[in-house]
Amino acid sequence: MGTVFAIFSPTGGVGVSTIAAHLAYFLSETRETGILDMIPDFGSITDILSFCPKPSSNKFPLIFEASTPILSELTHPKRGHLKVFVMPPSLMAQQIDWKAFIASARKSFAYTILDLPHTYLAPELTVGLTYADQIFCVGEYHWATIQSLKAFFDGCDINLSEKCKVIINRSEWLPQEVIDECRLNLGREVYAEIPYDPPLEAARKIRENSAFGKAMKRMAAGLIPEDTP
Amino acid sequence: MAAAKKYVVSIYSPLGGQGASFIASQLVHQLAKTNTSCLVDLNLDYSASIHYLSLNPADAFRKSALSGGEETLLSSFAIRVENNYFAVGAPLLGYGQFAEETHEAAKELVDQCRAEFDFTIIDLPRPLHVELTKSMLKMSDLILVLGESSDYSAQACIKLKEIVSDKSFAIDPKKLLFLFNKSMTQDKSSWTIFIWQVLALLVVLVAVYFLRPQWFSNPVFFIVGLIILMRLAWPRARDLSKTASSKLAKSQISFFHFLPHDSKSCRMAINQGHFLDDNTKTGRSLKELAEKLKTKLAAVQK
Q1: What are the contacts of B186-193 at 24+ separation with CB within 8 A?
Q2: Does the pLDDT at position A153 exceed 80?
Q3: What CA–CA distance (Å, rounded) separates B70 from B104?
Q4: Of A5, A129, A206, B34, which residue is least crowded by CB atoms under 10 Å?
């Protein structure tokens, strides 16, 4: 049985999809990895991975069942171990049994990455958070983002809270006192910090050698158990 | 000039982090200069536009939902931000504390707003398959769709137009007005880095001039140098590519308004919770947008 990682942020535009795509890309270096873009209509995983899965949107009903052979068809052309699933248009997405889908992905892949929507209104968010083994909550050192992250943790039950780890994406340069204040306000340990890397903003692509890419590679390496060949 | 009819305008951004909540909060400020206006933030888990104004939205939405359709004086529990500027939003809720308020309650709230204020601006959540978003899009007289200067954002705008044009969605695509936000996309700090990169390149050139002067007679050296320089400048080319522009044109999407690059004043306004002055670039542009919107709404009414 594989491990399911969910990437989530209560606020938009902090780099959730970019982090999810990079993590999946680096995890797939060693083992079978699946990435499920659960953001309806405007998900950006395929854009970041420069890949459009073969079963196009008009064939999506075919993969509602998410059986292993069908999931395996969605192979990234440059990464044999990476399978990409994109959420079908929102009206069709309501027909997906996400619980079964995640269970199927867990059986099929060593690692499954869920790119979750950021609003509590989306029902797939609850499913993703519940069935993930680890949740990476992405934030920035910005007062509004910290406030919403804090509120999210306040509302989590113990089981959910224990699964959550904070990742801070330092997408802009900030004075040290602002960073210190944000850390203090968050009141939770930061699992990983992604360094300031402005060129990445312009190109939503996998960049292995950028500061962002290197940070994600380190993080992915940390998620792989040591006894993995 | 008093508005002849009372209007509801939604602000929708297909992608996150494009500034929809910020623009919503600033646009209402411009509209409220002449007419009573209300900002309704329906991001019920996190009403960012209300928080940008350093306000506590208290329980405005819940109180409205509890009114059960009776006549309520909305302005008595909406937050009065300025003279004519009111705001209604949800309190900051954590995961699990959030009990989904029905879209019926939201509809009722917006109906009340329409009756009471000249302009009601709704800041909408993103998922289109959520009934709340769908019903609000249908109720709106106009929908301001926010785009950014990236190809990906252009694609999202095209996709949105396709989705709402679908029969199952039943929203008139003519209601969509595309707003192009460049206010935060070109970061000044990136330019500082670019200047440092160019300076570093010059230092290398000087070093080569003294250490390996023979390289300068080789045209390959100049070509490589030029490629490096272009590569350094590349990430800052933030305007839409020709491909994206032609795709937008093919989909018959024309931009209703452009917000210029002005990251310094926008960051100040976001971090300090104040309104943009009319003497800032974005402030002026928002004023212009408010006027254009009024004219457009009057035309739609006709």
Answers
A1: B186/B236, B186/B238, B186/B261, B186/B263, B187/A172, B187/A198, B187/A201, B187/B263, B188/B263, B188/B264, B189/A172, B189/A173, B189/A198, B190/A198, B190/A199, B190/B235, B190/B236, B191/B236, B193/A198
A2: yes
A3: 14
A4: B34
Give the global pTM: 0.79
H helices, E strands: number in chain B = 12, 8
Interface of A with B (CB under 8 A): 10-14, 40-42, 44, 47, 89-91, 93-94, 117-122, 129, 143-144, 147-148, 151-157, 160, 172-173, 198-199, 201-204
- ipTM of the modeled complex: 0.79
Contact B15 A44 (CB under 8 A): yes
- A3-223: CATH, from 3.40.50.2300, 3.40.50.300, 3.40.640.10, 3.40.47.10: 3.40.50.300
Domain regions of chain B by residue span: 7-186+239-301, 188-236
B132/A89 touch (CB, cutoff 8 Å), yes or no:
no
Both structure tokens of A181 = 């204040």
Query: In this predicted model, which residue has the larger pLDDT, B243 or A24?
Result: A24
Domain boundaries, chain A: 3-223
pLDDT score of B189: 47
Task: Write down the pLDDT at residue B28.
Answer: 93
Q: What is the pLDDT of residue B66?
A: 45
A184-197, pLDDT tens digit by residue? 988 899 999 988 77
At the topology level, CATH places domain B7-186+239-301 in: Rossmann fold (3.40.50)
Mean residue pLDDT of chain B comes to 78
| Of A41, A154, A202, Cβ closest to residue B163 | A41
Long-range pairs of B192-197 with CB within 8 A, sequence gap ≥ 24: B193/A198, B194/B232, B194/B233, B194/B236, B197/B232
Q: Can you give the pLDDT at residue B97?
A: 55
Query: Inter-chain contact A90–B46, Cβ cutoff 8 Å?
Result: no
* Per-residue pLDDT, B190: 56
